Every structure is written in structure tokens, then in C-alpha cells.
Amino acid sequence: MVKFAHISDVHLGGWRQPQMQSLNFESFKRAFEICIEKKVDFILISGDLFDSAYPPIEILKETFSEFRKLKEAKIPCFIIAGSHDYSISGKTFLDVLEKAGFCKNVFNLEEINGKFLLNPIIYEGIAIYGYPGKKSGLEIEDLRKITLNDSPGLFKILMLHTTIDKIKGNLPIDSIETEILPKANYYAMGHIHLDFQYENFVYPGPIFPNNFQELEDLKQGSFYIVDLSKGISLEKIELKLKEVISIEVEIKNAIYGTDQIISEINKKDIENKIVLLRIKGELESGNISDIKFHKIEELVFSKGAYFLLRNTHELKVKEEEMPIEIKNVENIEEESIKNYSKENSTLFNNLIIPLMNALSLEKQEGEKSENFNLRLLEECKKILNFK
Fold first, then answer.
1. Which end of the chain is more exposed for a tag (fewer CB within 10 A), N or C?
2. How far apart are CA 193 and CA 264, in angstroms?
3. Which pLDDT belongs to residue 93?
């Protein structure tokens, strides 16, 4: 019976740091190697193979090389676009992969009386349907209208790159209701970077974590191999290429912060590991600039770490309250600017109120956005005395 791989959210080209971008690609490469080793019958990629609709040429060259290996092993690959590699025009480099014979985009839609009819790709007695993800969840309204062109007697797979209601929890985001989706035997989901299952809805997680937080939470990438010989059997494949070590330091005095951070790092074995350094706290003394990050980086790499990522979002400077007397609540903005100007006297302060008034201009009824923007720009130029 059929055995297939379910991969999603590869995001090739997503990391801007070369070391992390390389690791992301190695994780993708290893996933294909495992699929070949385990002799899967086919592979599904349910969106976001690339991090953008138009990835860099170097990323494309390396990707084509891996798909060529898949083709030589005679393993077909079925794919849909995700919210990152989808474009409004509908044209992406997934089309180039398809024209090269490396994969098949399964999105095949007919619009009939306001309804979207999805046609399947039939392979080895399996009907594979798909609908792409779009920016800002715009696919969800469309998904409420889709139906499947029935394939009696065939095992049905529906590939989707979206958020289902069962995974979003209390997050204030739009999601598709699972109960209104067309019935399928297996839902190959993508988009949410979690290993999550609800009945036969399966999110395999990303091939590699895509940011600091995901590295903290997931540690590594993953995908699934699905065996249909006895019902639906899922084997999770973990892609652990580098160990991730998290170091959290809370500091209050920036002057001694560097030594405090170095002390914590020296307690850890970080050789050949991805080091996640999270620095938090409210500084009662000194500024963030007093922390010698270059010295910290030198130490980390001298100890043989693969890479260092730091997060200082929770590191704040304690603000001293400056008493401001507001005489007129209705003119609170003007009063605040006057009080600020006493402490910070510059020529630009005289332009603040006129600029605020200019920026409060309202768009006129029927006025095109382009014309409104030009009008707003001209007003600001007059105030700033720009020619």
C-alpha cells in the first residue's frame, strides 16, 4: 500500500544570516534524503517551499539540484503555494519547478455559480486536491466556498495552507471551520509552525525553525511519513542537525551586564551548538549600549559555538518620570510639546505642531489615494521649506 511524506513550511531563503540559511537548506536536503532512503511513493509539500514568491537565484539553483535527485529516484512531488511563495498574479517560481518536471502543483479550480470546485490529481489510486495559502489569511473566505470534484472509491487528500479553528486557540486570527470543509481522508496542512493533529488534520511543523522563538520552542524541524497499509499510520521524522541551547540572563546594571552574561555562558557547553541568548530586565543603572556585545560574541565563537542569536526585546531602560503640568486638557498635545521643548530645545520643535496639523488632513470623498498622498506630501514640503 501507499506510503508518502508530508512536508510543509520549508521557507528556503528565510534566514538572512548565512549560517542559519545554510542550516535551513541542509534540513530540507536531509528530508529529501530520508524520503529516498525510505522509498516513499510520493511527497506532499503543503505550502511555503520558498520564503518569498521570487527567491534569490542561489537558493533556486540549490533547490533545483535537490529536486533533480528526487526525480532520479522516481519519486513524484505534489505541491501547493503558501502565504509566502504565493503571489497575487498567481505566478511564482513553483511554476518553474513544475515546468522543469520536478513537481506538480495540484491546485486546479473551476468556479461554478459562486462555488469553487477543486479537481484532483490522481496518482496510485489516490485523489490529491489542493488550495493555496494567501497573504493575511485571504484564502479562508474562499475555503468556505470550495467543494471537491468527487472521486468515488479513491483515498482523498486535501492539501491546505491555512489556519483551522482547532489550532488557533484564543488567538485573535481568522480561521476556517473544520466542519464546513469538504470531506477528505487526510488533510495535509501547512502554515502553522507546530506539530499538531486534530483527527485527520495534520500539521507536520516546519522543516526548520524560522526565528528565535521557534528555535526556543521547537529546537529542530520535522515532517511526517504517512503509511496507508493499515489505516493512517504517522511516523514523525525529526531533523536534528544542531543542538540548540538557551541562555537567559536578567540584568539590572548595564555596567556589570557584560560580565554577568559572560559568567552564564561560561557555565555551558556550547561547542557546535546554536546559542540562543535572551537578555531581559529593567536597567536601573547604565544603558543597553554599555553592554559589550562584541566581547560576548568573541567568547561564544571562541568556545566553538555554531552560531549565536541574541534577543533583547525584554531589556528595558528604566524611565524617570518628568512632571508635566497640563493646563488645558483639550490642548494636551500642544502643552506636552511645549513642556518637552523646554527640556530639549531645537529649531525642529517649532515645526512639530504645523506638521501634526498637516498630517491630520482627511481624505476627501472620492479622492484617489495617490492624489491624497501627493497633497499630504506637498503640505509637509511647504512646512519644511523643501523645494
1. C
2. 30
3. 84
Cell of 288: 543597553
**64/160 same-domain check:** yes
Distance CA(77)–CA(98), nearest Å, equals 10
Which of 239, 272, 307 terminates a domain? The answer is 239
Residue type, 54: Y
DSSP annotation string for 252-296? SBHHHHHHHHHHHHTTS--TTSEEEEEEEEEESBS-GGGS-HHHH
Residues classed as catalytic: 84
Q: Do 128 and 202 fall into the same domain? A: yes
Tell me phi and psi for residue 14, to 5 degrees.
Answer: -75, -40
Global pTM value: 0.81
Q: Residue 387 burial by CB count (10 A; 0-12/13-18/19+): exposed, middle or buried? A: exposed
Same domain, residue pair 74 and 101: yes
Overall domain count for the chain:
3
Give the residue carrying C-alpha cell 513524484. Answer: 76
- The predicted-structure confidence for 128-181, as pLDDT tens digits, reads as follows 999 999 988 889 999 999 999 999 999 999 999 999 999 987 777 889 999 999
Whole domain around residue 297: which residue ranges? 244-317
CB atoms within 10 A of CB 143: 19
Residue listed under C-alpha cell 510639546: 337
pLDDT on residue 376: 73
